[in-house]
Design a protein that fits this description.
The chain is an alpha+beta fold. The chain has six helices and 16 strands.
């Protein structure tokens, strides 16, 4: 599938901003299952940009502004091809004893440890252990994601960007970010390495070619069971060609699409994503 993605973010300030320093993480990755054919970031007011790869392998565009402005608009436009057909040479699934091997634990320690956002909610770990029973790691991951999907309603606006797994679990409501954090809490608690994935999702199961639609900034997870397996717990489905990967890390804090600091009054923010299947 070939997709064009336009991600526009508008910050509107209550008065003049005299300086701002920003980082954008909105450039899709090139991986064995997707190719970023083109990607650019436009900034208004105009600003010089620099690019680098961060610790987690995310493509970061940094820019700063030193002119007075009351609005900041960033528009990321990308062209991506995805191809996630099943790998006939996929690695053998690991057992629980394989996952506990010292070498693997040392290598993936950062993706096994809880973070402030993914610390297991009260009583959550016990419920997860009872849920998975004697399942192998792969089946345990699928059971867990299905359970979180069933227990937590997808309700836009129910939580804020700083919500923790505990907060969204208490509410039993949240957005894709919250559902991914809960899945990570459960997987890491079981000893399954897991990472947060940010990106985009075409909302239609069978997208029409040439039709521009309102898409989504989206989040899902990947767990390690001999190979990295992508799963979308918000929709309880395998990651497919409609998913476009931008970043992978421990949680949302590592991969937020746009972050920065500025000198000036309070602001409001509005974001929209448009997605078009081209082929």
């Amino acid at each position: 599938m070939r997709l064009r993605i336009v991600h526009e973010t508008t910050h509107t300030y209550d008065g003049d901003v005299v300086a701002s320093f920003n980082e954008a993480r909105v450039t899709p990755l090139t991986t064995p299952h997707q190719t970023a054919l083109d990607s650019r970031l436009e900034v208004v007011p105009a600003a010089a940009t620099t690019r680098y790869w961060d610790y987690w392998g995310t493509h970061v565009t940094a820019f700063d502004l030193h002119v007075r402005h009351r609005r900041l608009v960033t528009t990321a436009t990308s062209l991506v091809e995805t191809d996630r057909r099943p790998d006939r040479h996929a690695a053998r699934p690991l057992s629980w004893s394989d996952l506990r091997a010292d070498a693997l634990v040392d290598e993936l320690a950062e993706l096994l440890a809880p973070t402030p956002r993914t610390a297991p909610p009260d009583g959550f770990a016990d419920a997860v252990r009872e849920l998975v029973g004697g399942a192998d790691p792969r089946e345990a991951a699928h059971r867990l994601c299905a359970w979180v999907h069933d227990e937590v309603g997808y309700v836009p606006g129910a939580t804020g960007v700083h919500a923790t797994a505990q907060e969204s679990w208490d509410l039993r409501r949240g957005v894709c970010q919250d559902i991914a954090h809960l899945a990570l809490a459960g997987l890491r608690g079981l000893g399954v390495p897991a990472r947060y994935v940010s990106g985009y999702l075409h909302p239609h199961p069978d997208p029409a070619t040439g039709e521009e639609v309102a898409g989504e900034s989206h989040a899902w997870i990947e767990f390690f069971d001999g190979a990295w397996t992508g799963w979308d717990p918000t929709n309880d489905c395998a990651v497919g060609d409609r998913h476009v990967v931008v970043a992978r890390a421990r949680d949302y804090s590592d991969v937020s699409p746009l972050r920065g600091v500025y000198s000036g009054p309070p602001s409001s923010v509005r974001a929209r994503v448009l997605v078009t299947r081209l082929a």
